[in-house]
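Listing 4. Sequential folding, example run.
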Amino acid sequence: VQLQASGGGLVQAGGSLRLSCAASGLPYNSYRVGWFRQAPGKEREFVAAISNSGTSTFYGDSAKGRFTVSTDNAKNTVYLQMNSLKPEDTAIYYCATHKNPFHSIVADLYDYWGQGTQVTVSS
């Protein structure tokens, strides 16, 4: 199983980034992909989630209205489009998967995790 998160970088406040999470080798056909983030000294925080079919999405409070999660099934890739970025969005962003038929904000429920990609938003 491999989850490859990419697309992070340094951006000014108000800017945008698109993160990607490419999945391969998952042992289930139906699953959810979640995005989490962790800033230094803080707990891991749920950002957004999507079903692998793309038909169902769920957002954490920090993402509502600014971030959009989507999927390209042909590429087995999930995207997190982040707009209107703020310095407080600075964190390492992780993607993860679980097989349950519902969205979850609980990190422990997720089976597989990517390595994370750093997002830094300057003021």
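-- end of first protein; second protein begins --
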Amino acid sequence: EVQLVESGGGLVQAGGSLKLSCTASGFIFNEYAIAWFRQAPGKEREAVSTISSDGGITHYADSVKGRFTISTDNAKNTAFLQMNNLQPEDTALYYCAAKNYPVASMSAAVYSYWGQGTQVTVSS
């Protein structure tokens, strides 16, 4: 059974940091590209960051560039999203997703597997 389990969300003040984790099981992790998406109440889901299956290529939404860093640890079947200098507009439910292809995409439609999400709330 394929599973993606996110953790690491929480409540933080503006300017603070959080590190999200996404632990995968049920598939060969290093063959899949990984992405982080987020969805705030009343807003559409948006791509935050992606990473290729070998970790060599990353992409970021303009809104998080320079503040967020995506990474993977294939030995632990885990992806991470380090989030620094968090702002209230970063408040959302954050999801990780996996696609069975080495190259990642910022389009949610191409991802086969999704986690349940972890809530990030940033207070001003």
